[in-house]
């Protein structure tokens, strides 16, 4: 039995009927190198052999009576892989758009909290003989960094499948605790650490003070802040429905743009998102006069006070200059904005999410989340932000799953109430795999957004090549020699 940390519990408490806090992922596999071709049972055995490497796979949550403390993880004595791994076939040749339709429908359903909080579907019949593994995992047990670590347990470094140590060992779950024991353990947990709330309050007050000083400082007012976002048409109350779209761009292009303009790869991606969102909004006559505000998750692994937390993540708020038309001007503005956002983010500290959760009773936290959705507060108050944009590092080397080559990984994060759009990119073997998820009732036609980001990177690449070519030509051009002028000497008689 292991208690959920406050930082992780936050993702449980904010979930309601329209806010699903699971992370969706799409792995595209090329099985052409598998002996005898693709076989579902082979893939099933591959995942079965790795269950023991990922505790999340065979643990479920139990709530504590009266909400005395946060829920606990316990072994699921009824665990059955077939309850979590399924098979689906589209009519071949299934297109990327058809896969996206399936993923959107799949992501629309929340996970069953009475079971371990994950699910996978193997989708067959895709173009070129490809196979997709589509997964849902609850945010309480995974974030960007831990998700990459989890994926490392599911893949091989060569096309020859391998069995990890411990594969096939019978699962021997611990006994499920009774409700009285859960209550007693929760009370003991509080008694052993009576100052837990006081420390959280102290850190929160300190962080608030630092933020206030940053806002009053020289650079403070120029940085993006929550609730300072203009309202876009996708900043409304969510429904439970989801839709998805995918695209791929070149990582080498992003690095070339980065070095040419003296920015970061993340700046390049945010600028490409800015281009895409500007076009998307203009096409629907919905472009705000002010820049959009993006919430950009930042990993704080190794900085949080509770090292047990799976979700060691904070946020910085970055303005996206959708009011600028020129892509290079957008890029330079984004670079300036991210520098300011990092300074303000540093003032927030690494424990903000966990501390706020610790100071708010779970029942109140969840009630506030449900009321926010039910009353439609997303339409009544200023948006916290317009959307979430995440950048997740991925594998730089070829990887395989059960002998099939891993071709692409499209990550899809959860939606927050009032912001019907989420964009995530994962670097993978020289590619930037872009996943876009949204609520189709307020953010339609997401393929435009995904392809627009890839197009934006190509536009910036062309601009970088033009700049690089102009600088090279200027460097090669011979300099004109200056004419020497003889100074007039004194006149002599």
Task: Describe this entry's structure for a reader.
The protein has helices at residues 6-13, 40-48, 96-107, 144-154, 179-192, 196-216, 251-261, 265-282, 327-348, 352-359, 362-374, 446-476, and strands at residues 2-3, 22-30, 59-62, 72-75, 85-94, 118-126, 131-138, 243-250, 292-299, 313-320, 387-392, 400-401, 404-412, 421-428, 431-438. It has 493 residues and is α+β, with helices and mostly antiparallel strands. The protein has one domain (2-473): Chloramphenicol Acetyltransferase (2-Layer Sandwich), CATH 3.30.559. The strands form 3 sheets. It has a 6-stranded mixed sheet. Strands 8-15-14-11-9-10 form a 6-stranded mixed sheet, with helices on both faces. The protein has a 3-stranded antiparallel sheet with strand order 1-4-3, with no helix packed on it. Helix 6 crosses helix 9 and helix 6 crosses helix 10 (352-359). The mean pLDDT is 87.
């Amino acid at each position: 039995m292991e208690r959920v940390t406050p930082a992780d519990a936050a993702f449980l408490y904010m979930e309601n009927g329209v806010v699903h806090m699971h992370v969706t992922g799409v792995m595209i596999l090329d099985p052409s190198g598998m002996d005898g071709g693709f076989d579902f049972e082979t893939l099933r055995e591959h995942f079965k052999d790795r269950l023991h490497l990922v505790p999340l796979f065979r643990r479920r949550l139990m709530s504590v009576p009266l909400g005395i403390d946060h829920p606990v993880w316990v072994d699921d004595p009824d665990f059955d892989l077939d309850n979590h791994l399924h098979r689906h076939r589209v009519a071949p040749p299934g297109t990327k758009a058809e896969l996206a339709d399936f993923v959107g429908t799949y992501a629309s359903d929340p996970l069953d909290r009475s079971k371990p909080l994950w699910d996978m579907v193997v989708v067959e019949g895709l173009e070129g003989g490809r196979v997709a593994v589509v997964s849902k995992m609850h945010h309480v047990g995974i974030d960007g960094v831990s998700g990459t670590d989890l994926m490392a347990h599911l893949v091989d470094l060569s096309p020859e499948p391998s069995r990890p140590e411990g594969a096939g060992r019978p699962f021997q779950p611990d006994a499920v605790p009774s409700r009285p024991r859960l209550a007693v353990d929760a009370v003991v947990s509080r008694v052993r650490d009576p100052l837990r709330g006081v420390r959280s309050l102290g850190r929160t007050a300190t962080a608030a003070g630092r933020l206030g000083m940053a806002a009053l400082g020289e650079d403070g007012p120029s940085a993006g802040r929550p609730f300072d976002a203009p309202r876009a048409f996708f900043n409304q109350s969510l429904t439970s429905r989801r839709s998805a779209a995918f695209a791929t761009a070149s990582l080498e292009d992003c690095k070339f743009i980065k070095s040419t303009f003296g920015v970061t790869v993340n700046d390049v991606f945010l600028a490409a998102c800015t281009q895409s969102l500007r076009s998307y909004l203009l096409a629907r006559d919905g472009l705000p006069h002010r820049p959009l505000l993006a919430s950009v998750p930042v990993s704080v692994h190794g900085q949080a006070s509770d090292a047990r937390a799976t979700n060691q993540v904070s946020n910085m708020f970055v303005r996206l200059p959708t009011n600028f038309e020129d892509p290079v001007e957008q890029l330079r503005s984004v670079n300036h904005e991210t520098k300011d956002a990092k300074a303000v983010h540093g003032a927030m500290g690494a424990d903000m999410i966990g501390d706020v959760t610790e100071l708010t009773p779970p029942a109140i936290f969840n009630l506030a989340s449900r009321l926010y959705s039910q009353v439609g507060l997303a339409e009544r108050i200023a948006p916290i932000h317009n959307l979430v944009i995440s950048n997740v590092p991925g594998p730089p080397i070829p990887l395989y799953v059960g002998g099939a080559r891993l071709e692409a990984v499209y990550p899809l994060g959860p939606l927050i109430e009032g912001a019907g759009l989420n964009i995530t990119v994962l670097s993978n073997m020289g590619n930037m795999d872009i996943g876009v998820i949204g609520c189709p009732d307020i953010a339609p036609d997401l393929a435009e957004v995904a392809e627009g980001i890839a197009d934006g990177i190509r536009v910036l690449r062309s601009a970088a090549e033009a700049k690089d070519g102009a600088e090279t030509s200027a460097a090669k051009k011979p300099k004109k020699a200056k004419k020497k002028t003889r100074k007039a000497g004194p006149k002599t008689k």
